[in-house]
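Review form for a predicted model. The reviewer records the input and the model, then writes brief findings.
Reviewer: anonymous (R2)
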Amino acid sequence: MKTIRCILALAAAFLLLAGCVSLKTPVGYAETSHTGGYAYKAISTDASVITVAEYENEDEDMGSLDYWTQAARKQMTLSRGYIFEEEGDFSCPQGSGHWMRFARKYRGTDYLYLLGIVVDGSTIYALEAGGEKAVFEKDLPFMLKAFATLN
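Model under review:
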């Protein structure tokens, strides 16, 4: 009986943790339960996507929003071949955030990628959105509004 109570308590804790990230789903996107390891994921009929991933901020003193923004920009441009285009700040219930827009051509098609970073103490939130430029570009304002609803 004690083992069953422990298993139920662990299952309840897992369910509480699994549902703790929310985002107002942008117009034209449908939230999916098949998240592929993301805390949140929604897709459009044009195959554009918006996701939220959570990471542990192991060094809260050094791992500031500025630090993770610089690290992400270098990863995107130097390692992944994206071209940095624009950036800005946003705020959400989890705190202050910073977004960056990148572009890349892949197999002859232009893509846009939007990355938002929020650091809330020991948690880093990576908000990602992207798709083919021809269809995703019109969604950019909706993505930035969605980023501001991270909770």
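Findings: Strands lie at 29-31, 40-44, 49-56, 83-92, 95-106, 109-120, 123-132.
Further findings: Helices lie at 2-18, 65-79, 133-136, 140-147.
Recommendation: see findings above.
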